[in-house]
Amino acid sequence: MASDRQIEANRNNAKRSTGPKTEKGKARSSRNALRHGLSRPRPHDDAGFEVLTRALLDPLAREAPSIESTDVVRTKLELARLRAVRHELLAAFLKTPNAKLRKRLRGLERYERAAFARQTRAMRRSG
Predict the structure, then answer these.
(1) Inter-residue contact 57 to 65 (CB < 8 Å)
(2) 10, 64, 81, 90: most buried by Cβ count inside 10 Å?
(3) How much is the pLDDT for 85?
(4) Cα separation of 121 and 117, whole Å?
Protein backbone atom coordinates (compact mmCIF):
# COMPACT_ATOMS: atom_id res chain seq x y z
CA MET A 1 0.00 0.00 0.00
CA ALA A 2 1.34 3.41 -0.95
CA SER A 3 1.90 5.91 1.82
CA ASP A 4 0.26 9.34 1.85
CA ARG A 5 3.62 10.88 1.01
CA GLN A 6 4.01 8.61 -2.07
CA ILE A 7 0.49 9.37 -3.24
CA GLU A 8 1.12 13.10 -2.97
CA ALA A 9 4.44 12.78 -4.82
CA ASN A 10 2.69 10.82 -7.61
CA ARG A 11 0.02 13.50 -7.93
CA ASN A 12 2.66 16.25 -8.16
CA ASN A 13 4.61 14.33 -10.78
CA ALA A 14 1.46 13.69 -12.81
CA LYS A 15 0.74 17.41 -12.94
CA ARG A 16 4.11 18.02 -14.59
CA SER A 17 3.89 15.28 -17.25
CA THR A 18 0.86 16.21 -19.31
CA GLY A 19 2.23 15.50 -22.80
CA PRO A 20 3.50 17.79 -25.53
CA LYS A 21 2.78 21.50 -25.25
CA THR A 22 3.86 22.88 -28.63
CA GLU A 23 1.96 22.40 -31.88
CA LYS A 24 5.00 20.66 -33.38
CA GLY A 25 5.16 18.25 -30.44
CA LYS A 26 1.43 17.57 -30.57
CA ALA A 27 1.59 16.88 -34.31
CA ARG A 28 4.48 14.48 -33.87
CA SER A 29 2.91 12.58 -30.97
CA SER A 30 -0.40 12.28 -32.81
CA ARG A 31 1.36 10.13 -35.42
CA ASN A 32 3.10 7.78 -32.97
CA ALA A 33 0.68 4.92 -33.61
CA LEU A 34 0.99 5.24 -37.39
CA ARG A 35 4.71 4.49 -37.67
CA HIS A 36 4.20 1.20 -39.48
CA GLY A 37 0.44 1.21 -40.08
CA LEU A 38 -0.21 -2.06 -38.25
CA SER A 39 -2.63 -0.54 -35.77
CA ARG A 40 -4.76 0.83 -38.60
CA PRO A 41 -7.66 -1.32 -39.82
CA ARG A 42 -7.53 -2.29 -43.47
CA PRO A 43 -10.28 -1.10 -45.81
CA HIS A 44 -12.89 -3.64 -46.89
CA ASP A 45 -12.49 -2.74 -50.56
CA ASP A 46 -8.97 -4.15 -50.64
CA ALA A 47 -8.46 -6.24 -53.80
CA GLY A 48 -6.65 -8.95 -51.83
CA PHE A 49 -9.66 -9.29 -49.58
CA GLU A 50 -11.97 -10.15 -52.50
CA VAL A 51 -9.53 -12.64 -54.02
CA LEU A 52 -8.85 -14.38 -50.72
CA THR A 53 -12.55 -14.47 -49.83
CA ARG A 54 -13.35 -16.24 -53.10
CA ALA A 55 -10.40 -18.63 -52.73
CA LEU A 56 -11.03 -19.64 -49.11
CA LEU A 57 -14.77 -19.89 -49.11
CA ASP A 58 -16.67 -22.64 -50.86
CA PRO A 59 -16.83 -21.67 -54.54
CA LEU A 60 -20.07 -23.64 -54.94
CA ALA A 61 -21.91 -21.73 -52.22
CA ARG A 62 -24.66 -19.68 -53.80
CA GLU A 63 -25.37 -17.38 -50.88
CA ALA A 64 -23.20 -14.41 -49.96
CA PRO A 65 -20.37 -15.10 -47.50
CA SER A 66 -21.34 -14.65 -43.87
CA ILE A 67 -19.92 -11.96 -41.65
CA GLU A 68 -18.10 -14.62 -39.64
CA SER A 69 -16.39 -16.06 -42.71
CA THR A 70 -15.30 -12.64 -43.94
CA ASP A 71 -13.88 -11.97 -40.46
CA VAL A 72 -11.73 -15.09 -40.84
CA VAL A 73 -10.49 -13.85 -44.22
CA ARG A 74 -9.79 -10.40 -42.79
CA THR A 75 -7.68 -11.88 -39.97
CA LYS A 76 -5.78 -14.06 -42.47
CA LEU A 77 -4.92 -10.95 -44.48
CA GLU A 78 -3.88 -9.12 -41.33
CA LEU A 79 -1.54 -11.97 -40.37
CA ALA A 80 -0.10 -11.99 -43.89
CA ARG A 81 0.54 -8.26 -43.63
CA LEU A 82 2.28 -8.77 -40.28
CA ARG A 83 4.48 -11.49 -41.76
CA ALA A 84 5.44 -9.17 -44.62
CA VAL A 85 6.39 -6.40 -42.20
CA ARG A 86 8.36 -8.87 -40.08
CA HIS A 87 10.18 -10.09 -43.20
CA GLU A 88 11.10 -6.53 -44.23
CA LEU A 89 12.33 -5.63 -40.74
CA LEU A 90 14.28 -8.86 -40.40
CA ALA A 91 15.96 -8.33 -43.78
CA ALA A 92 16.89 -4.78 -42.80
CA PHE A 93 18.18 -5.99 -39.42
CA LEU A 94 20.32 -8.71 -41.02
CA LYS A 95 21.74 -6.18 -43.46
CA THR A 96 22.47 -3.56 -40.78
CA PRO A 97 21.93 -4.76 -37.19
CA ASN A 98 20.97 -2.02 -34.77
CA ALA A 99 19.01 -1.66 -31.55
CA LYS A 100 16.18 0.33 -33.13
CA LEU A 101 15.32 -2.42 -35.62
CA ARG A 102 15.61 -5.08 -32.91
CA LYS A 103 13.13 -3.14 -30.77
CA ARG A 104 10.70 -2.81 -33.68
CA LEU A 105 10.93 -6.54 -34.39
CA ARG A 106 10.08 -7.32 -30.78
CA GLY A 107 7.21 -4.84 -30.91
CA LEU A 108 5.51 -6.83 -33.67
CA GLU A 109 4.68 -9.58 -31.19
CA ARG A 110 1.94 -7.43 -29.66
CA TYR A 111 0.21 -7.04 -33.02
CA GLU A 112 0.60 -10.72 -33.84
CA ARG A 113 -0.93 -11.82 -30.53
CA ALA A 114 -3.91 -9.55 -31.10
CA ALA A 115 -4.34 -10.79 -34.70
CA PHE A 116 -4.16 -14.45 -33.63
CA ALA A 117 -6.76 -13.78 -30.92
CA ARG A 118 -9.09 -12.15 -33.48
CA GLN A 119 -8.55 -15.09 -35.82
CA THR A 120 -9.37 -17.59 -33.08
CA ARG A 121 -12.56 -15.73 -32.17
CA ALA A 122 -13.62 -15.45 -35.82
CA MET A 123 -12.99 -19.14 -36.44
CA ARG A 124 -15.01 -20.13 -33.35
CA ARG A 125 -17.93 -17.97 -34.53
CA SER A 126 -17.84 -19.36 -38.07
CA GLY A 127 -17.47 -23.04 -37.23
Answers:
(1) yes
(2) 81
(3) 87
(4) 6
Residue type for position 120: T
Alpha carbons within 13 A on the beta-carbon side of 3? 3
- The pLDDT, as a whole number, for residue 91 is 93
* Rounded Cα distance, 105 and 89, in Å: 7
- Give the rounded percent of residues in the chain with a pLDDT score beyond 90: 17
Give the amino acid at 85: V
Could you tell me if 78 and 39 are in contact, meaning their C-beta atoms sit under 8 angstroms apart? no
User: Residue 42: CB partners within 8 Å, gap ≥ 6?
Assistant: 49, 74, 77, 78, 81
pLDDT digits (tens, 9 = 90+) for 49-87: 667 666 666 554 555 556 566 788 788 888 888 898 899
Q: What is the dihedral of CA 51, 56, 61, 65, to 10 degrees?
A: -70
Q: Which of 111, 100, 90 is nearest to 40 (CA)?
A: 111
- Say what the pLDDT of residue 40 is: 63
